[in-house]
Amino acid sequence: MARKKRVPQRTCVGCGKVADKRDLIRVVRTPEGEVLVDLSGKRSGRGAYICPNRGCLSKAARGGRLFRALEPEVSEEVIACLMEELSD
């Protein structure tokens, strides 16, 4: 009898919804201080999870939740870049 593999749960920093890790998009601050979208979910650094829609990203950025989760100041240029990547 095969065992079901447990899927980790993560919370979206935008809306607060708890979902499977693979259903959310990871935004990571690398050890070098660069903030990017981590589609593989395996990049080293501090991560925050967001639902794959622009509404959650804008809510997380506007409310300062993304800044708190990733700790450094996240510039508006990075937010715009993340918005573009989410729309793809």
Description:
By secondary structure, the chain is of the alpha+beta class. The chain is built from three helices and five strands. It has a three-stranded antiparallel β-sheet with strand order 4-3-5. A two-stranded antiparallel ribbon has the order 1-2.
Portion in strands:
15-25%
Q: What's the β-strand tally? A: 5
CATH superfamily, please?
YlxR-like
Instruction: Report the end-to-end length measured between terminal Cα atoms.
Output: 40 Å
The CATH topology turns out to be: Hypothetical Cytosolic Protein, Chain: A
CATH architecture grouping: 2-Layer Sandwich
The radius of gyration over CA amounts to 13 Å
Give the helices and strands, then pairings.
Elements: E1 9-11, E2 18-20, E3 25-29, E4 35-38, E5 46-50, H1 54-62, H2 65-70, H3 76-87
Antiparallel strand pairs: 1-2, 3-4, 3-5
What attributes characterize this protein structure?
5 strands; single chain; globular; about 90 residues; 3 helices; 3-stranded antiparallel beta sheet; Hypothetical Cytosolic Protein, Chain: A; alpha+beta; about 30% helix; two-stranded antiparallel sheet
In short:
It contains three helices and five strands.
